[in-house]
TrEMBL record:
The keyword Nucleus applies. Pfam families: DDE_Tnp_4. Its main location: nucleus. Belongs to the HARBI1 family. Keywords: Hydrolase, Metal-binding, Nuclease, Nucleus. This is Nuclease HARBI1. GO terms for cellular component: nucleus. It comes from the Eukaryota. Residues 155-310 form the DDE Tnp4 domain. One of its GO terms (molecular function) is metal ion binding.
Length: 379
């Protein structure tokens, strides 16, 4: 009886080893890099050369292979990219990608997400400008594109849906009646994300998240030291401060305030476009996908997607149909709750006056040039 038992156990062990060998052979024979370029980009959201660059960056931060049949780093990264890009369930990703089991997909996703959340990686790819030179460079981009001086970023909040958490559920139930984390994002004029905080529940308003943001403290310190040359742009969910410029509510038509609001809205739309590009490429963050993880794990995945967004954006990669993806994402944005925001120290009104004066000076110059052009025929 014992002999039959050991024979059965040995046969079961042989079958398990054969399954592992078959999976390894399948991975080696069906390399995703053999896919056509457009199909590869559609599945993994990066080009093949960019994927190879990413492997070189992340490989030192991934666990080493402890046995010969272990999943290699490039397959781990591809598995994570497929999940970030498509969302849904781990089993579905594993079935469509090299026959990986749900457990293997879980392990790949864990390892790659942890690698992308390594402090060294986060500091390299998500960096708010701190030095005068860095602040001036970001400010120059906004001024050249939108004509507002001193802007070093646009701040906005965006909800990422998660499953109902086990602990402190009320903190994650937002006003649109689903569970989420409220992600604060600051971006520059080129859609690079300079700062992200994915640690607050969806019940927290944008202003509360901003109140605990280190960038808020940094900007306040700059102004306290008399270096208040720079500011951020935010919508009406935030309180007006010298370092955070918001729209003027109920501005009269044709007034300086209305002109300021138009310039402000044009520049601040960068934040909407940035969130649209982020969620359009890494669709696991879309509201209908729902990250089926605890708030902490979901926050790490958001950080990972932000790193990948900057990695792709800085390489100049634009997804096909990105404009349509942007529109789909903007439809899902949460409804803005405008707050009355008083310009206590007059900093916003001073900026309104500067922009209005610059507009009038520009119009005068245009009229002057037109007058000179019309008179040249009579000289």
């Amino acid at each position: 009886m014992s002999g039959a038992y050991f024979l059965a156990a040995a046969e079961e062990d042989r079958k398990r080893r054969q399954v592992r060998v078959n999976k390894r052979v399948l991975r080696e024979q069906g390399s995703p890099l053999d896919l056509p370029d457009d199909e590869f980009l559609k599945l993994f959201r990066l080009t093949k050369p960019l994927f190879k660059d990413l492997c070189a960056v992340l490989s030192p931060f991934l666990p080493g292979r402890q046995y010969c049949n272990a999943i290699p780093p490039d397959i781990k990264i591809l598995t994570a990219l497929a999940f970030y890009g498509q969302g849904g369930y781990q089993k579905e990703v594993g079935t469509s990608l090299l026959g990986l089991s749900q457990t293997s997909v879980h392990d790949c996703l864990r390892d790659v997400t942890n690698a992308l959340n390594s402090p060294k990686i986060l500091r390299k790819y998500i960096k708010f400008p701190r030095t005068s030179q860095e602040l001036e460079e970001v400010s120059r981009g906004f001024f050249q594109e939108y004509g507002i001086p001193g802007v070093v970023g646009c701040v906005d909040g965006s909800h990422v849906a998660i499953i109902r958490p086990c602990d402190n559920e009320g903190a994650y139930f937002n006003r649109k009646n689903y569970h989420s984390i409220n992600v604060l994002i600051i971006c520059d004029s080129k859609l690079n994300i300079l700062y992200v905080d994915a640690s607050f529940g969806g019940a927290c308003p944008d202003s509360h998240v901003w109140g605990h943001c280190p960038v808020n403290q940094f900007m306040q310190t700059l102004h306290a030291r008399g270096e208040g040359l720079y500011c951020l742009l935010g919508d009406s969910a935030y309180a007006q401060r010298p370092w955070l410029m918001t729209p003027v509510l109920r501005a009269g038509a044709g007034s300086p305030d209305e002109y300021y609001n138009r310039l402000h809205a044009s520049a601040r739309s960068v934040a909407d476009r940035c969130v649209g590009a982020l969620k359009g490429r890494w669709r696991c963050m879309l509201a209908h996908k729902v990250l089926r993880y605890s708030p902490i794990k979901a926050g790490k995945m958001v950080n990972a997607c932000v790193v990948l967004h900057n990695f792709a954006n800085q390489a100049g990669l634009v997804m096909e149909h990105q404009e349509q993806l942007l529109q789909d994402v903007l439809v899902q944005q949460h409804v803005l709750e405008a707050v009355e925001s008083h310009d206590v120290d007059g900093s916003r009104q001073a900026l309104v006056g500067r922009l209005w004066a610059a507009r009038n000076a520009c119009m005068y110059q245009v009229d002057y040039n037109r007058h000179c052009d019309s008179n040249q025929y009579f000289t």
